[in-house]
Amino acid sequence: MDNEDYDYQIKIVVIGETQVGKSSLLLRFVDDTFDPHQPTTIGVDFRAKQVDFRGRNVRLTVWDTAGQERFRTLTSSYYRGAAGVILVYDISRKPTFDILNKWLAEARDSIGDSDAVVMLVGNKSDIEDRQVTTDEAQTYAKRERLLFVEASAKESKCVDQAFLETLEKVFDQPALLEKCLNPLKKTSPGQQSTAQSDVVQPQSSGSSGEGGGCGFC
Ligand SMILES: Nc1nc2c(ncn2[C@@H]2O[C@H](COP(=O)(O)OP(=O)(O)OP(=O)(O)O)[C@@H](O)[C@H]2O)c(=O)[nH]1
Ligand SMILES: [Mg+2]
């Protein structure tokens, strides 16, 4: 896609402990693939996907970084300009849930408290032997004002929903959306009302809503 072919460019960053499935969620969303032997991320990876949303061409840029501290670089530039954050834990490993505060603090310190939409994703919902209940994650999401969904990159469950609901919330915040306008676009779609929500909805149903429950899909 040429630079002028999209109305908005929306940056989404994916964060969370190592091995929770950040890269797997990204690859499922962008390429609809899954690798059971996904290599650990070193540094930063980046993928783009175009979506039509509420009658607009949206270029989603999804950034994926290493969960392992020693492979992480340049934290501030990673978060810069992000409108959405996908905060991931693994429902089968409690420590990845217990450490969410650390990741949330880092994201909020880097981006600003209300300058991005944060979606909490409990990944690996296909695993039966879970260590984090839906209820406790839901309570945490509500307290921290996060969107929330349980997903499985492996089984392609609720992955699109996680990304599209994040996008939907960005579109609901005109000030945030304004920052994502394509500067090369000659006619600003922002001159029309960007807050109108009567056109296209993401395919997801069972929307979690902010601070709300888990979307079961
Ligand atoms: N069962 C199951 N396994 C998954 C799922 N998502 C990812 N995995 C596996 O979990 C492991 C880690 O996945 P990654 O996507 O590399 O995790 P990551 O968070 O990117 O890890 P780092 O890059 O080290 O931070 C891999 O073996 C994946 O195949 C899932 O939904 N279900
Ligand atoms: Mg990775």
TrEMBL record:
Ranges in coiled-coil conformation: none
Pfam families assigned: Ras
Listed InterPro entries: P-loop_NTPase, Rab_GTPases_membrane_traffic, Small_GTP-bd, Small_GTPase
Composition-biased stretches (Polar residues): 188-203
Region of interest: Disordered: 186-217
SUPFAM superfamilies: P-loop containing nucleoside triphosphate hydrolases
Composition bias type Gly residues, residue spans: 208-217
PANTHER family xref list: DRAB11-RELATED (PTHR47979)
Family: Belongs to the small GTPase superfamily. Rab family.
Protein name: GTP-binding protein YPTC4
